[in-house]
Automatic annotation (TrEMBL):
Membrane topology designation: Multi-pass membrane protein
Any single Gene Ontology cellular-component annotation: membrane
The protein's name: TM2 domain-containing protein
Organism: Actinoplanes siamensis
Pfam families the record matches: TM2 (PF05154)
Main location: membrane
Transmembrane residue ranges: 58-80
Length: 104
């Protein structure tokens, strides 16, 4: 993300495009706190996976009761990494759609 001085050095159109892209990303990014909360409440049914968009794995967890609880138990160690991966992918898609090169 650019500093305020770098943003002000951009032409007005580019600055507005960057702000719009950042705003769109903020609206669709996933929150790790929510993912962990869903894991606590619906982990055995894959609710946290549904939240992160892993539909096929969620359905597998739903019908196997989280791999008889084992898969759900192991997921607690991987939720934060999965949220980062999902957010990184979503940010790259938004920035590409607006034609913004993302250095992060």
């Amino acid at each position: 993300m650019e500093s305020p001085q770098e943003q002000s050095a951009l032409p007005e159109w580019d600055r507005l495009r960057l702000l719009r892209a950042e705003s769109e990303y903020d609206a669709i990014k996933k929150d790790p706190t929510i993912a962990y909360g869903l894991w606590c409440v619906t982990g055995i049914f894959g609710g946290h996976r549904f939240y992160l968009g892993d539909t096929s794995r969620s359905i597998l967890m739903l019908f196997t009761l989280g791999g008889l609880g084992l898969w759900s138990l192991l997921d607690v160690f991987f939720i934060a990494r999965r949220v980062r991966t999902v957010n990184h992918t979503r940010r790259a898609m938004v920035m590409a759609r607006y034609g913004v090169l993302d250095a992060s």
